[in-house]
């Protein structure tokens, strides 16, 4: 078997593969055996290999050659790709050039391949970006806000006999109607509302302030045009509300005892110091992620690469599938979500195409840097990362059934090698 490789535009190649006369004859014999097994001819037992002239008479020479060609292409094309480390993507387009008795068999394959990337001076790009890294600072207000949040999470509720005010938790029964008709999501009993949190439609909580236990009120609200429920967008909704309970939040005092109750803290000062450390670390991580993302975008922006459409289409599909999974977790469907944002799936695909292109370009640049720098993840590192990735699963065997072990290892290896790219660039900075 011989082949010739020709580079085409748009990161595609053409492979012209030639099988010798003897190789082609072997595939013809395989085709004859396969066709013979399916033929029923009087005077011959089912499954027996029929004489060639009978197979040609019953099935036709064209059918035999087509079957032989199919067998030859399915075997020889992957062999050429694997043995020569050609990284193809997508489905190949096949054209038969020569197919005849007592002759070589020749066919062409046009297929997209992972494109070559011409990288910019990524070390200089990284150095320039890292010079713009923001200095991390944690001020006292951030500590105070964190302490206040901790107090609120440990607040005790006390039922009070007074008018509801901001910060109170009230339990209500409510029903909303549009043109006299009750709509889905506009009726609830014993519904908890923290006044001032803004969890209800805009203006709703304002009408509850000043009401006491067992008091009722009727009011109307115009729902915004961008409300998540399309049926209620721009609608005037009439509400009937009854307050069942008014509860005041009693916050714990901010002192050493409160700090002790949260864990292994000596006093309030120790808690404040720990909060400062945590906030500082969180900001450091956020800034590191921002800078790394900026480095990748800048490198990708200056890189030269022809990205085949099949790669972009695949990334857009992955993004759509991810969106579908996320919206289904909220109890709705992709179709309903698209209705709410007033877009079709095709419009969304078109809108996301530039983002998908950038993400593919970034991935290709990272892959090229890994290759150029000779960066490799050890088997020990890969296995450790695989265990980390599978940690959320209670049953590892179930996880491995859902995702092939080899794919998990490839993903783990990619994470580690990409991490090593950043470590290298940060070290040189």
What can you see in these coordinates?
The chain is of the alpha+beta class. The protein folds into 3 domains: 2-113, 2-Layer Sandwich (Alpha-Beta Plaits); 156-250, Chitinase A, domain 3 (Roll); 266-428, Trigger factor, C-terminal domain (Trigger factor, domain 2, Orthogonal Bundle). Helix content is 50%, strand content 20%. It has 13 helices and 9 strands.
Q: Could you give the topology of this structure?
A:
Blueprint: E1 2-8, E2 12-19, H1 21-38, H2 52-59, H3 61-83, E3 88-98, E4 105-113, H4 122-130, H5 140-153, E5 156-159, E6 169-178, E7 181-194, E8 216-222, E9 236-250, H6 256-261, H7 268-302, H8 309-329, H9 334-340, H10 345-373, H11 379-390, H12 396-402, H13 405-428
Antiparallel strand pairs: 1-2, 2-4, 3-4, 5-9, 6-7, 6-9, 8-9
Radius of gyration: 34 Å
Show unreliable segments.
Answer: none
Largest sheet: 5 strands, antiparallel
Shape: elongated
Q: How many structural domains in the coordinates?
A: 3
Question: Any descriptors?
Answer:
429 residues; 13 helices; Chitinase A, domain 3; 3 domains; 5-stranded antiparallel sheet; alpha+beta
Give the structure's gist in a few sentences.
The chain has 13 helices and 9 strands.
């Amino acid at each position: 078997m011989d082949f010739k490789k020709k580079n085409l535009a748009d990161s595609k190649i053409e492979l012209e593969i030639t099988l010798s006369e003897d190789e082609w004859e072997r595939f013809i014999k395989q085709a004859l055996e396969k066709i013979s097994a399916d033929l029923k001819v009087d005077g011959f037992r089912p499954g027996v290999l029929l004489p060639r002239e009978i197979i040609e008479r019953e099935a036709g020479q064209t059918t035999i050659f087509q079957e032989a060609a199919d067998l030859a292409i399915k075997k020889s094309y992957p062999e050429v790709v694997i043995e020569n480390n050609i990284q193809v993507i997508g489905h190949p387009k096949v054209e038969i050039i020569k197919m005849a008795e007592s002759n070589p068999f020749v066919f062409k394959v046009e297929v997209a391949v992972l494109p070559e990337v011409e990288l910019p001076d990524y070390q200089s790009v990284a150095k320039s970006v890292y010079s713009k890294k923001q200095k991390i600072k944690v001020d006292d207000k951030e500590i105070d806000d964190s302490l206040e949040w901790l107090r609120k999470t440990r607040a005790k509720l006390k039922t009070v006999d007074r008018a509801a005010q901001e910060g109170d938790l009230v339990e209500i029964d409510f029903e909303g109607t549009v043109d006299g008709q009750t709509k889905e999501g506009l009726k609830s009993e014993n519904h908890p509302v923290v006044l001032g949190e803004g969890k209800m439609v805009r203006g709703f909580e304002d009408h509850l302030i000043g009401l006491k236990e067992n008091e009722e009120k009727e009011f109307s609200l115009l729902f915004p045009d961008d409300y998540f429920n399309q049926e209620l967008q721009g609608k005037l909704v009439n509400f009937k509300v009854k307050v069942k309970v008014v509860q005041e939040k009693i916050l714990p005092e901010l002192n050493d005892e409160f700090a002790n109750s949260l864990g292994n803290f000596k006093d309030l000062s120790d808690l404040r110091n720990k909060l400062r450390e945590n906030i500082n670390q969180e900001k450091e991580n956020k800034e590191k992620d921002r800078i790394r993302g900026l480095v990748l975008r800048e490198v990708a922006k200056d890189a030269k690469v022809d990205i085949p459409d099949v790669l972009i289409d695949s990334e857009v599909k992955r993004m759509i599938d991810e969106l579908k999974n996320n919206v289904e977790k909220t109890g709705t469907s992709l179709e309903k979500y698209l209705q709410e944002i007033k877009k079709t799936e095709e419009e969304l695909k078109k809108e996301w195409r530039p983002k998908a292109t950038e993400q593919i370009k970034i991935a290709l640049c990272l892959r090229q840097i890994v290759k150029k720098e000779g960066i490799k993840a050890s088997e020990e590192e890969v296995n450790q990362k695989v265990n980390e990735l599978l940690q959320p699963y209670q049953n590892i065997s179930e996880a491995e059934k859902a995702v092939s072990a080899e794919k998990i290892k490839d993903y783990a290896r990619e994470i580690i090698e990409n991490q090593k790219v950043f470590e290298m660039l940060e070290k040189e900075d």
